[in-house]
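dumping this here before i forget
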Amino acid sequence: MTIILYSKISKEFQDECFETHINTIPEKLKNKINSFRRWQDKQTSLLGLLLLRHGISRFSDSQDDPLHLLKYNSYGKPFLDIDLDFNISHSGDFTFCIISNDNKVGIDIEKIRDIDVTILKSQMTVTEWENIVKADPVKDCAFKYWTQKEAVVKAIGKGLSIALSSFAIVNDKATINSDTWHVYPLPINIDGYSSHIAINKELSPIELPCEFVNFYKS
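structure:
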């Protein structure tokens, strides 16, 4: 089973609930979140951890808080010593978490903003860049490829050791070291955002439930 959970930041949450929720997480994670200057960054980071904890409860009856059991691989990707894979992404007002007990997964969301898309040229294959410059609008196509590729890299979990330009997205798939990754847009559409998941198995949209979780005053 694979599930996708998401939440949205709000000033009301920050003013009324943030301290209550942050005091439920491990001190090391709490200190990292509090090191951010903007309340928006603090809240999106906290929501990612709350979504992870909430989602894991769907798969396990354990009373142990999974946030106390987080480990990190040599590339900095968090993991748990249980048969679950997960990934978190946040941008703008939204935070997403994908969790699976039978697949390797990655997720990436980006708020589509005004940027000079040529800064992404070095991250694309020749064909991908040709498709971008021919697209209308160019920016949407650039962010599509960007989030697709980021989701694949995050699913693999080896960070910047895999250059985005070293593989191509073709027919919503990428092949890296003989492994095939299927790339799907999130099953909900959020205006002004580009978002994709990567998974090592072909699935139908019905197999990718997406649920909003409201932690405000919960």
